[in-house]
Write a structure and sequence with these properties.
By secondary structure, the chain is of the alpha/beta class. The protein contains ten helices and eleven strands. The strands form three sheets. Strands 3, 4, 5, 6, 9, 10 and 11 form a seven-stranded mixed sheet that branches. A two-stranded antiparallel ribbon has the order 1-2. α1 crosses α2, α1 crosses α3 and α1 crosses α4.
Length: 306
């Protein structure tokens, strides 16, 4: 079967005009070539499209049924160029973004809000995952970018690009009961020594080594060895365990936005540990849509540093 979009446009013109002469005039061509093109189309399709007499041209049953399909096909073809231009400008398409759970209460919401404002035609595919899983997904090409807690494994350093976005201090999440027992009020920072003997709830090191090590180093600098109680892989779960009185946790300050009944957040007095969140992507594959998100992330990073 051999025909092109031009022949389909000729078919629609003749079908609407019901006259080869008027259709030819509309198409800015002469009638004989138009008639020849329609016959070629009919031969390619293997069915007559028009009933021809000396005075009129009418659609066959096949032609009548085919006409709306051809119109839809041509409309789709006409939309290809604008769609390609939108994709090239990053105004349309799909962005697959992964994020650590800590980002859900800090950098993620403002980034998504701004991106949605500037790129309303882009579909977002979001997935929560630990930093190590995100790196695996990136290297496998299953996500476009990720919000992670660094560092990037050395073996991937030449294949991935990392953009620091935010650094924030860790604070203590504890139950209201525990806060009363150690005499802590909202305005009073507490020391790590006051937490000695209280179970510590943490991310497993195998899943978040950088975050785990920040917390352990914090205790080590204070000359303390924490008592590890429970482990959990999501911040929501850690805060829930705190609420249940199963221990305390050191969490990014943005987690104060996660208001959970029975949980209070207190700053630290004797240590200033910070956790960094950044955007990572493959250096060999940057789509226009991803370029738009990276630009927003850069501006956001500058705004919170400035």
């Amino acid at each position: 079967m051999s025909f092109d979009l031009r022949q389909l446009r000729y078919f629609v013109a003749v079908a609407e005009e019901r006259h080869f002469g008027r259709a030819a005039q509309r198409l800015a061509m002469t009638q004989p070539p138009l008639s020849q093109q329609i016959r070629s189309l009919e031969e390619s399709l293997g069915a007559p499209l028009f009933l021809r007499t000396k005075r009129s041209v009418e659609l066959t049953a096949v032609g009548r049924d085919l006409l709306p399909e051809v119109r839809r096909l041509l409309a789709g073809a006409d939309a290809l160029a604008p769609m390609a231009q939108s994709l090239a400008r990053g105004e349309a398409g799909l962005l697959s973004l992964a994020f650590v759970s800590t980002a859900d209460y800090g950098v993620l919401p403002p980034l998504l809000q701004r991106f949605g404002e500037l790129h309303p035609g882009v579909r977002l595919q979001l997935s929560e995952a630990t930093s190590d899983v995100q790196i695996e997904e990136l290297m496998a090409g299953r996500v476009d970018a990720g919000l992670i807690i660094p560092p990037i494994p050395a073996r991937f350093a030449t294949q991935l690009v990392y953009l620091p976005i935010a650094r924030e201090p860790l604070v203590v999440a504890m139950s209201e009961t525990q806060a009363r027992l150690i005499g802590s009020d909202a305005a009073t920072p507490i020391t790590l020594r006051e937490l000695a003997g209280i179970a510590l709830i943490v991310f497993p090191r195998r899943l978040a080594p950088a975050f785990y090590d920040i917390i352990m180093d914090c205790f080590a600098q204070a000359g303390l060895v924490p008592q590890i109680g429970q482990e959990a892989i999501q911040m929501q779960t850690i805060v829930s365990l705190v609420s249940a009185g199963m221990g305390v946790a050191l969490v990014p300050q943005s987690l104060c936005n996660l208001q959970r009944t029975g949980v209070v957040y207190r700053p630290l007095r004797d240590a200033q540990p910070v956790v960094e969140t950044g955007l990572v992507w493959r250096n060999s594959e940057v789509s226009p849509v991803l370029e738009g998100f990276i630009a927003i992330a850069r501006r956001f990073a500058l705004s919170i540093r400035g």
